[in-house]
Amino acid sequence: MSELLERAGEASEFLKKLANPNRLMIVCALVDGERSVRDLEDSLGIRQPGLSQQIAELREAGLIAGRKESKSVFYRLADERVAEIVSLLYRMFCKPGVDAVSMEGSRND
């Protein structure tokens, strides 16, 4: 039972890092590969101070990694579990044909 509790705690901490909408958008943007901070800022509409804060959280958790090239910093996913979670979330919430009504209906079954 203690192993189950330990695993549940680990999973909970992992999910907490992705539970912030801005952090979730960042990892979604990185699923297809490396992107610069500037590109993330432009495509996600998150201004630099907020973006930097969320990137720092993801880096500290080991979910993303960065590399510097000249004056730019590029980020990529560093934990394959993130891509798996994002793929699942895409199928549940973003895939064409999935809407809030069908999601609510599946909860009531």
TrEMBL record:
Keywords: DNA-binding, Transcription, Transcription regulation
Protein name according to UniProt: Winged helix-turn-helix transcriptional regulator
Pfam families associated with the record: HTH_5
Entry's Gene Ontology molecular function annotations: DNA binding; DNA-binding transcription factor activity
SUPFAM superfamilies named among the record's database cross-references: Winged helix' DNA-binding domain
InterPro entries recorded: ArsR-like_HTH, HTH_ArsR_DNA-bd_dom, Metal_resp_trans_reg, WH-like_DNA-bd_sf, WH_DNA-bd_sf
Transmembrane segments: none
NCBIfam families: HTH_metalloreg (NF033788)
Domain of life according to the entry: Bacteria
Occurrences of domain HTH arsR-type (ranges): 1-97
PANTHER family listed in its UniProt record: ARSENICAL RESISTANCE OPERON REPRESSOR ARSR-RELATED
